[in-house]
UniProtKB/TrEMBL annotation:
<dbReference type="InterPro" id="IPR016064">
    <property type="entry name" value="NAD/diacylglycerol_kinase_sf"/>
</dbReference>
<keyword id="KW-0418">Kinase</keyword>
<dbReference type="GO" id="GO:0006741">
    <property type="term" value="P:NADP+ biosynthetic process"/>
</dbReference>
<dbReference type="GO" id="GO:0003951">
    <property type="term" value="F:NAD+ kinase activity"/>
</dbReference>
<dbReference type="InterPro" id="IPR017438">
    <property type="entry name" value="ATP-NAD_kinase_N"/>
</dbReference>
<keyword id="KW-0808">Transferase</keyword>
<dbReference type="InterPro" id="IPR017437">
    <property type="entry name" value="ATP-NAD_kinase_PpnK-typ_C"/>
</dbReference>
<protein>
    <submittedName>
        <fullName>Inorganic polyphosphate/ATP-NAD kinase, NAD+ kinase</fullName>
        <ecNumber>2.7.1.23</ecNumber>
    </submittedName>
</protein>
<dbReference type="GO" id="GO:0019674">
    <property type="term" value="P:NAD+ metabolic process"/>
</dbReference>
Length: 249
């Protein structure tokens, strides 16, 4: 298998970087990869996906972060990398999608984790939300903000905002209100969502993008497919289930 190792600035991966340079230097220059290799934490994986999302190439992560929801834990680095190159190891993959955001018929970008509208906890905006299937139709709420999360992002801000954790390969979004006058904590099909908001900043996975002016409509729809590989699918699923049990503790 042709593999490209995506470098990042995380100091925790310096030893792994050195291994790649010394033992597998071709991974740094491969220009027709079939798999991206990423080392670090979930943030490193998300940045790698964000930077290369339009390639459609699957990702495989070496866990060296704190939570590592999107990466694999293993110690025998050389053996695993060699097995990946030789196609002698089985990888289970999950497929998900980013959220494509559009404003005034222009593509703003794609959010791997979530689209967050709002600026600060003391902000106050009026939001109007409509979904393609009519689950939400001109649903108006006032407050600090709203979060629309993908399955990948459901263990990030969405989780801290009491949103539901979604199966990674599900075709759903989690949408939650942030300090609002009406309760909003829904799971909805991954579909087109139209939102208006008076002066609320729009974030694409924590990257500041645009400020919605009055009467401007933000359109969210299914974006690029993302595929992430795991050595132990069962262990990965158990970790997501475990964090979902937080309300029982």
């Amino acid at each position: 298998m042709r593999i490209r190792y995506l470098l990042n600035t995380d100091k925790r991966v310096s030893k792994f970087d050195r291994l790649i340079r010394e033992k597998f230097p071709s991974l740094l220059t491969e220009n027709r990869p079939e798999l991206y290799l990423v080392a670090g934490g979930d943030g490193a994986m998300l940045r790698a996906i964000h930077d290369t999302i339009d390639t459609g190439i699957p990702y495989f992560g070496k866990a060296m972060g704190t939570f590592n929801f999107l990466l694999n834990s293993f110690d025998n680095d050389e053996d695993i990398i060699q097995s990946l190159i030789e196609d002698t190891i089985k990888i289970d993959t999950f497929k998900s999608h980013a959220i494509e955001a559009r404003l005034d018929n222009k593509k703003l970008g794609e959010a791997v984790n979530d689209v967050i509208l709002g600026e600060k906890i003391t902000g106050y905006h009026t939001f109007n939300i409509s979904t393609e299937n009519g689950d939400l139709k001109n649903f108006e709420m006032k407050g600090s903000g709203i979060c629309i999360s993908t399955a990948i992002g459901s263990t990030a801000f969405n989780f801290n905002n009491n949103g539901r954790i979604l199966p990674l390969d599900s075709n759903f979004l989690s949408i939650t209100g942030i300090v609002c006058n009406r309760f909003l904590n829904d799971i909805i099909p991954f579909q087109e969502i139209r939102i208006t908001a008076n002066g609320a900043k729009t974030y694409l996975t924590n990257v500041e993008s645009e400020i919605l002016k009055n009467n401007q409509e933000l359109i969210l729809r299914k974006g690029s497919q993302i595929e992430i590989g795991f050595l132990n699918k069962k262990e990965f699923l158990e970790r997501r289930i475990d964090i979902a049990h937080r309300f029982r503790k």
